[in-house]
Amino acid sequence: MLKETVLVRPACGVVVCGVVVVLIVWLYSTVLAAPVLLGLVVLNLLHVMRWRDLAAVPWEIVALYAGASALGKGLAVTGAGLYIGDSFVHLLPESWITGTGLSIAASGISALVTNVMTDGAAVSAIGPVVLPLAAAGGAQPWMVGLATSFASSFAYLTMVGSPGNAIVFALARDPVEGRPLLSLVDFLKHGAAALLISLLVLWTWALLGYWRWLGPG
User: Fold this and answer.
1) Does 38 share its domain with 78?
2) For residues 104 and 96, is the Cβ–Cβ distance under 8 A?
3) What are phi and psi of 173, to 5 degrees?
4) Same domain, yes or no, for 42 and 87?
5) I want to staple 72 with a disulfide (CB 3.0 to 4.6 A). Which of 98, 118, 137, 165 is the partner?
6) Which residues have CB under 8 Å from 57's CB, separation 6+?
7) Residue 1: pLDDT band by 50, 70, 90 thresholds?
8) Residue 144 and residue 200 share a domain
9) pLDDT exceeding 70 applies to what percent of the chain?
């Protein structure tokens, strides 16, 4: 027992130092993946992490979210996301593309789109469409922009909507039988209620004019 404790303490110190180094490199790097891979290589070279540890990682979570991120990136790069956002907005009645109505519509679209792509990709798809409409329609850009941004975190309906959803979906298995405990129906059923509550809170905030305390005019 004493020997195990002596061996664990240096390993913990190496891991902590590795995490600190990765965080520091992240601050000065434009590539997010490289510092993480560097940390993994160092841990392997120092024999803190072994192949069996890597094999025990639930890689299906990584693959699941990587696929969702690739989908979002593809929609953003090809312009398909912008097309989707533009199409949604132009289906709205004229009264919904000005003033507070625009912020409600933009946040609703953002909340739906973010369930099939990353938060950043969702805002990148919708922001370039709704912000010019806000300026042209006399709406407050703070109101429309922040409503769109806030709603992009309402990814409750699918397992690929956020890393947390993917992790919970992949790890929620019966400890005895190994069968999945969650399904897409569970996300849709419970996520719809959470999405509705979140949107109602955001829309109430928008109607109260929260942007007046956040910026000029």
Assistant:
1) no
2) yes
3) -130, 150
4) no
5) 118
6) none
7) very low
8) yes
9) 81
End position of a domain, from candidates 32, 57, 82 = 57
Domain shared by 104 and 6, yes or no: no
Q: In this structure, which amino acid lies at residue 36?
A: V
Per-residue CA distances from 23 to 19, 38, 65 (Å):
6, 12, 22
Q: Which amino acid is at 174?
A: D
Q: Which long-range contacts (CB under 8 A, 24 or more apart) does 198-205 make?
A: 198/111, 198/151, 198/154, 198/156, 199/107, 199/108, 199/111, 199/151, 199/154, 202/107, 202/147, 202/150, 202/151, 203/104, 203/107
How far is 32 from 62, CA to CA, in rounded Å?
Answer: 15
Instruction: Give the pLDDT confidence of 184-216 residue by residue, as tens digits.
Output: 888 899 999 999 999 999 988 877 766 666 655
180 has which bridge partners?
A: 173
DSSP 8-state assignment for residue 94: G
Q: Is the pLDDT of residue 174 over 70?
A: yes
